[in-house]
Amino acid sequence: MHKFAVELTTAKEVESFSEIVKTIPEDVRLIGKDENGAEWNMSAKSLYCSLVVSAKFQREREHTAHDVNWDTLWCVCERDIYELIRDYVRISPRTEVK
Predict the structure, then answer these.
(1) In this predicted structure, what is the pLDDT of residue 21?
(2) Cα separation of the two ends of the chain
């Protein structure tokens, strides 16, 4: 398993990153934490839609954590996809998880 710390700071970057990972046949996951430290895990292939929907509907929820702690954002895949996502990787070198 390969794990990369990623940084996605604009909607354009999120959209571009999502389009890249959609071309990868293997499962690509994003893992991170919200503002309260609760861990979350989701498909990186649907990140853009998920963030848009989350931002829209979370405004209606008063007492739940919903902000992504962007310093905890990691991309995980069985395949080494560094060359495809290197523009978004914020820490080098790559991290391999066993």
Answers:
(1) 93
(2) 6
- Mean pLDDT per block of 10 residues along the chain (98 residues) reads 86 84 94 81 74 54 57 90 93 55
Beta partners for 89? 6
Model confidence, pTM: 0.72
Domains, the chain: 2-96 (3.30.1340)
The rounded distance, in Å, linking the Cα atoms of 79 and 64 is 34
Please return the burial class of 38, using the count of CB atoms within 10 Å of its CB with bins 0-12, 13-18 and 19+: exposed
Cα–Cα distance for residue pair 84/40, rounded to 1 Å? 23
Exposed, middle or buried: residue 15 (CB in 10 Å: 0-12, 13-18, 19+)? middle
